[in-house]
Specification:
About 45% of the residues lie in helices and about 15% in strands. It has about 500 residues and is an alpha/beta fold.
Length: about 500
C-alpha cells in the first residue's frame, strides 16, 4: 500500500464530500469502526475483553472519530468514556453530530478545560487499560499547546500503566516528515485512516508510532487510486496485502499440496535455533516440516516440535529429497562443513532457498557468490550480518536502510529481508516493502529463527519469494505484538511469538 501526504488525503476527502455531502458522516463512522476494531483486538489479545476505554478527544475530525468509536465500543460490550480537551462549543460538522449522538446514548464524558481540570488528576488511581489519543489530526504541526498539551502530558505519564492507541497519527508527530515534537505521544498502536501517511515511514517516527494498522474509511476507489505516491519505491505491508497474498486452502487438498520445507541447522552450541525455526515452520501452513540437524538438537526438537520429521545428519552431502523450500542457517555454525553445505546449496538447490544467520555469515564479503544460484534466494540478515556481507560498516547500513537493502538485492540477485525496526523486503525492479508491525520486546534470542522458519513454510506453499517475505514479516511482527500484550515486552521470548502465530493468521484471514 502506498504512502500519501496529509494534504493529498485531505483533498481526496474533500472531493468525496463535494460529490456527496453524506460522505463526511460515512467516512467518520467508518473511521470509528476501524478504531473500534483495533481497540477490540488489543483487549482480546490482552485477555481484557470488557476493558474501560478512555478516549481523549480534540475539537476536529480526529475527535469525531473518537466519538464514533465510543458508540461502537458500547455496542460491543466495552466501556467507553470520553474526555473532551476543548469546550464542546468548538465542535463542528460531523464531529458535533457524533458527539451529540454519543451524549444521547448515555456514554459518560467530561470537559477537560483549564489547568485545574488536569491538575485534579494528580492523585488519580491507575488509569484505564486502554487510552486513545484522538487529540489532533494529520494537519497539525509543531508543539501542542493549551489543553491539548495537557492531554498529551496526561497520556505520556499514564503510558507505563496503559496501552495507548493513536487515531490516525500520534499527537506531536508531523504526518509528512515523521518529525516528533518533544512531547509527542508514544503510542502502542496507530490506526491509519484510509492510507498511511508519508512520515510514518521515517525512522524517527517509529519511536512514537508503535505498530501500524489500517482503518478503511470508504474513500471512493477512483479518488484513492488518483492520489500520488508520497514515497515512490516504498510500500507498506498492510493487513489487506497479507490477506490478498495468502493462498486459499482447497477442500480436496492434502499435506503434499502445501509443500515440504527442509530446514538445515543447529549445532552443539546452538541446538535451540533450529528447534525455534521448526516451530515457526510448523505454524506456517506448510504440509511437512523436515529437519536435518546435529545429534544434540534431536531431543529438544522431537519434544518441542513433534510434527517435524527429524534426522541427525547435517553433512554437506545431505540428500535434498524433493523439498518445496529450503532454509539453511539457524544455529548452523561457521566451520568448514557448514561452508561446504552453503556452497553446495547455492549450486544445487532444487527450490527456493532461504539463507539466514550463519549461512549468511559464511559468505562475508562475497555477495556476488549468491547471484549464480539457479533458484530464487532469500536472505534474512540483521544489519550487522548485511554489513559484513557487503563489506561496509553497520552505521552505513543504518544510515539509509532502504538504500542498503536495495543495494544488497542488486549485488546478490536475491530477495533481501533487512530485519530490525521497520523490516524491509527488497527485490530489484520492485518497490521495497516496509513492515510496521512488531515491538522492541522481539529483540531477543531466537526471534529471527522463528521468522526464518515461518518464511520457509510460506515458500513451501508456493507463495512467490518476494510476497512470502512480506507476509512473513507482517505475521511475525503481529505475533510479536500479540505476545507482548500478554507477556509484556520485557518478558517476551521467541517461543511466545510461535504461540501467537495462530492469532496473527486469524487477524489477517477468517480461515
Amino acid at each position: 500500500m502506498k504512502f500519501v501526504t496529509s494534504q493529498t488525503m485531505r483533498e481526496a476527502e474533500n472531493r468525496a464530500i463535494a460529490k456527496n455531502v453524506a460522505a463526511a458522516m460515512f467516512m467518520m463512522d467508518a473511521a470509528g469502526r476501524g478504531l473500534t476494531q483495533a481497540i477490540r483486538n488489543l483487549a482480546t489479545w490482552s485477555r481484557r475483553p470488557d476493558s474501560v476505554v478512555r478516549l481523549l478527544a480534540g475539537p476536529g475530525n480526529n475527535g469525531g472519530d473518537a466519538f464514533a468509536a465510543a458508540l461502537y465500543l458500547k455496542e460491543i460490550g466495552m466501556h467507553p468514556e470520553v474526555w473532551l480537551a476543548c469546550p464542546k462549543e468548538k465542535l463542528r460538522g460531523p464531529a458535533k453530530a457524533f458527539f451529540e449522538h454519543m451524549v444521547q446514548d448515555g456514554i459518560p464524558w467530561r470537559e477537560m478545560v483549564g489547568e485545574k481540570a488536569w491538575a485534579s488528576l494528580s492523585l488519580e488511581p491507575l488509569p484505564p487499560f486502554i487510552l486513545v489519543d484522538a487529540l489532533l489530526g494529520t494537519g497539525a504541526k509543531g508543539e501542542p499547546t493549551g489543553d491539548i498539551r495537557r492531554a498529551v502530558d496526561y497520556l505520556r505519564t499514564r503510558s507505563p500503566f496503559s496501552l495507548v492507541v493513536a487515531a490516525d497519527i500520534p499527537t506531536g508527530m508531523n504526518a509528512d516528515t515523521g518529525a516528533l515534537a518533544e512531547c509527542a505521544v508514544q503510542a502502542d498502536v496507530t490506526v491509519a485512516m484510509g492510507f498511511p501517511k508519508a512520515g510514518m515511514a521515517a525512522p524517527e517516527a517509529m519511536e512514537a508510532l508503535g505498530s501500524l494498522v489500517l482503518a478503511y474509511i470508504g474513500l471512493p476507489a477512483e479518488l484513492a487510486e488518483a492520489m500520488p505516491d508520497a514515497a515512490p519505491g516504498l510500500q507498506w505491508i498492510s493487513r489487506p496485502d497479507v490477506r490478498r497474498i495468502l493462498p486459499r486452502r482447497r477442500h480436496d487438498s492434502h499435506k503434499g499440496t502445501y509443500g515440504r520445507a527442509l530446514l538445515l541447522g543447529g549445532s552443539a552450541r546452538y541446538p535451540g535455533a533450529i528447534v525455534l525455526a521448526a516451530a515457526g515452520a510448523a505454524r506456517s501452513g506448510a504440509g511437512l516440516v523436515d529437519v536435518s540437524t546435529v545429534a544434540e538438537a534431536m531431543g529438544p526438537l522431537v519434544a518441542r516440535v513433534p510434527e517435524a520429521i527429524a534426522r541427525a545428519d547435517l553433512s554437506a552431502e545431505i540428500a535434498l529429497e524433493n523439498p518445496a523450500a529450503i532454509l539453511a542457517g539457524p544455529g548452523l555454525g561457521r566451520d568448514p562443513e557448514a561452508r561446504r553445505l552453503v556452497a553446495r546449496l547455492l549450486r544445487e538447490t532444487p527450490c527456493p532457498l532461504v539463507l539466514d544467520a550463519d549461512a549468511i555469515s559464511v559468505l562475508e564479503g562475497k555477495p556476488e557468490a549468491i547471484r549464480p544460484c539457479a533458484q530464487p534466494v532469500i536472505l534474512t540478515p540483521h544489519p550487522g550480518e548485511l554489513a559484513k556481507l557487503l563489506g561496509v560498516d553497520v552505521s552505513q547500513i543504518q544510515k539509509d536502510r532502504p538504500a542498503a537493502a536495495r543495494e544488497a538485492a542488486e549485488r546478490t540477485g536475491a530477495v533481501v529481508v533487512l530485519k530490525g525496526a521497520g523490516t524491509l523486503v527488497a527485490k530489484t525492479g520492485h518497490p521495497t516493502w516496509i513492515n510496521l508491525t512488531g515491538n522492541p520486546g522481539m529483540a531477543c534470542g531466537g526471534s529471527g529463527d522463528v521468522f526464518a522458519g515461518l518464511l520457509a513454510g510460506l515458500l513451501a506453499q508456493g507463495i512467490p519469494p518476494y510476497e512470502a517475505a512480506a507476509v512473513a514479516a507482517w505475521l511475525h511482527g503481529t505475533a510479536g505484538d500479540i505476545a507482548a500484550m500478554r507477556m509484556t515486552q520485557y518478558a517476551l521470548k521467541a517461543g511466545d511469538i510461535v504461540h501467537a502465530l495462530p492469532e496473527a493468521f486469524r487477524s489477517a484471514s477468517a480461515r
